[in-house]
Design brief:
alpha/beta; Rossmann fold; 12 strands; about 30% strand; binds adenosine-5'-triphosphate
Length: about 260
Amino acid sequence: MSIEVRNLSFAYGSHEVLRDVSFAVPDAALVGVLGPNGVGKSTLFRCILGLNQGYRGTILVNGQDLRRLSVRERAREVSYIPQSHAPVYDYEVLDVVLMATGSDLKMLSNPGKAQVKRAYAALERIGIERLAHRAYTQISGGEQQLVLIARAIAQQAQTIIMDEPTSALDYGNTVRVLSCVRQLAREGLSIIQSTHNPDQAFLYSDKTLVIDGGRVRAFGSPHDTITSELISDLYAVDVEVNSLYGDKVRVCVPVREVQSR
Ligand SMILES: Nc1ncnc2c1ncn2[C@@H]1O[C@H](COP(=O)(O)OP(=O)(O)OP(=O)(O)O)[C@@H](O)[C@H]1O
């Protein structure tokens, strides 16, 4: 499911956050969004999800203007994994995932066998089926993050927006989740995810969107976009981008740390 953002601007009252943002995410593509704290990444996501009303510009979801979609239609098209999440669900993990299957149910009807199967399949895909009958409020923050990712998969939306999905995960779960997300994009989904780790973009993104001061600073392949100059300037630290494995992957190194050794 494609997403196209055209000349998007958004302000919280008089505080202008996004300015003339344009980019497109085609089907089967994973776009990584980079940018320092507070530049407007979550605000951009909230606009695409229809949670921030009153934006200027146009957001097209699979060619349809977001403003014309009902809440149910939006839920069918786009699922969301928020950055931080106060656990409001006093339910079993399975029920939290099942709630995401509601967009294909009629009003007031309960999930049936098909929805339960889908919820289990999503938990298995993320490798957390053992948590199915645990209380959501009694699992760790990282485990809750994994449940939200399973929930987004169970929703079967064609676009997933992830706000720093691996921020609470340990190294192993980070790698597993990013690989799974990569695979979902290969299967045809459009995925937009923010990260504070530019190294991840090289391995797991098709394109990198760099937001700076509410504007698009760069948009293109990670190799073209994530340069020593850009990362150093963006985060105000001296960074050198080095290549590994015959340039199949690159890593960012804070050079002062190396020089002081
Ligand atoms: N509800 C709100 N009302 C007013 N200002 C807000 C609101 N939410 C965010 N902001 C402001 O808008 C700007 C962009 O915030 P946003 O959360 O989009 O940044 P971000 O790039 O996602 O940051 P981070 O990387 O720290 O999560 C910030 O200056 C923030 O203080």
